[in-house]
Write a structure and sequence with these properties.
The chain is mainly alpha-helical. The longest helix is centred in the middle third of the chain and has 34 residues, at about 85-120. It starts with a helix and ends with a helix. The chain is globular and about 60 Å long. The protein has helices spanning about 1-10, 15-40, 45, 50-70, 75-80, 85-120, 130-155, 160-175, 185-190, 190-200, 215-240. It comes from Saccharopolyspora halophila.
Length: about 240
Amino acid sequence: MSLLAVERIKLFSVRSTWWCMLLAVALPVGLAALVAGYADRLDVRSTQAGYQFGMMVVLVLATLSITTEYRFSTIRATFLAVPNRIAALTAKTGLIAALAFVLGEAVSFGSWAIAKVMRPEAALPLGDAETMRMVAGVGVVFAISAVLGVAVGALLRQTAGAVALLLVWSLLLEQLTMLIPNIGPDINNWMPFVAGDFFLTGGGPLSNPGAPYGPWGALAYFAAVTLGVWLVAAFVVRKRDA
């Protein structure tokens, strides 16, 4: 518990955390308001159209939580106080993942609620498993993404490089795999963020509808890839000088 308390103090004592939290919620909810105001046909899926904007901000927040420690050399003090580096990294990752989950739920239910208020006549039920997965599942995807952000930040140590890699990978490189002749759609299905989107939407607009997994299989794959990257990061953090 003391490790979590220390990480909580470090995380919430900087302004960048609060700005990221604000943007992570405001951007998707604001887009949901625009969709509700202008869309001819509104459903639960369309209310969640902006969740990826929030996820990008969460990736930045998670990366900053570890790279700023390397930048200002506070990570050395952390490892001196806590010789078990894996425990320190686990505490930081757990706290960031929990915060990301809360932000994701605020984004998803906030987006749904503002659309419901603006368009009370629209059919926006949350009574079945599929629509609940679309909404409540956003927090899970945010949490997994945050773990990936911490892992990449720990591996690269530099904020610019880690943020650029995560954003370019998720927003551009994964979609460019669709351009590979013949095998592009098959490769695209195994991209981690595509799998995360498939879990929420049942298949994004750029993904192959013949995906080899269902929504829950996609979530398991996304989580497995993230865990693999985090384990590599934990090994490197343990062996490399701070």
